[in-house]
Histidine kinase (Mesonia profundi), 351 residues
Amino acid sequence: MKPKKNIPYRIVEALVHLVFWVGIYFFFTYFLGYGSTNTTYINRFTLFLMPVTMITAYIFSHYLIPRYLIQKKYVWFSLYTVYAFIIASYVSIQSILYALIFLQDFQTGEITPITKSLPFILLGILMVVLLVIVLQVIQYLYSSSAEKEQLERKFLTTELAFKKQQLETLKMQIHPHFLFNSLNTIYGFTLSKRDEAPEMVLKLSNLLDYILYQTQKEKVSLEEELKHVEDYIALEKLRFQDTLEVNLDKQIENPNRQLSPMLFLPFVENSFKHGKIINGQLIVKIFIKENAKKLHFYIENTCDDSVVNTEGIGIKNIQERLNLLYPEKHVLEIKQEENRFIVDLKIVMPG
């Protein structure tokens, strides 16, 4: 359904039509009066041509073009166009003959000659109608393009808002999952009354501050993200003690690189959650490389022969977030081989 036109728009539209037909009137007077000095006669004769010209033009612009041409019913449009021009030609001839007689006070003996023959007058009317058709088609193409562009903007705005809502929902799903695992770690320390418990509480406090407040931002720096990854690793080192070996290799060119928060932490958390101590050690290897073109995050941990669930809430959420944040600009590979669980993530950085 097309939106209703307001009153100022209708006034402007009426003025445009008025100016157009005044211009057509002067065109007829020049076209028919070229070489004649009897301007009064030509002006009055033109008035007889205007109604049939206007009616024919509006039949095309308000009926035939929108109903048949724009709807791509080309055969019907061609057929009705022929009918319309036949009828318009007949009415035009009658108007011309009636004008010749009426302007002579119905005295057929001495009719003032006009400068153009009947076919030329019909050609003039045809030219005006064709001009109206062309202008109507141009107006339709312009309005369709503008409407399409407006719909695309509205669609993109709606899609962006939807994606933002999805991301916020995914973040809220991540928070309880992370908090549950972290509190379990502290709970174990408090039960054994370990001296490291206060340090763990402090680190967890920093992590919670990051999760609850900093992740509300659309972007955080790579340095800030990695700092909290290291805090999480420190918590796990306190829990595992000598049974944990973590190798963290960072090759960062721009620590201020902006990225979505909580991008790496779910993978790190998952490595400890599903990692297994083999030969007295849980080994976690993390490699992070960043440059102007690419961000590469790789993590592996020891695991047993049982199949690790790669569809858990943490992994599933991060996959969905990556699809929303970096569509067609990331490659995420998750695999399990020879007592190793591997996550390999590559992101193409925006230029």
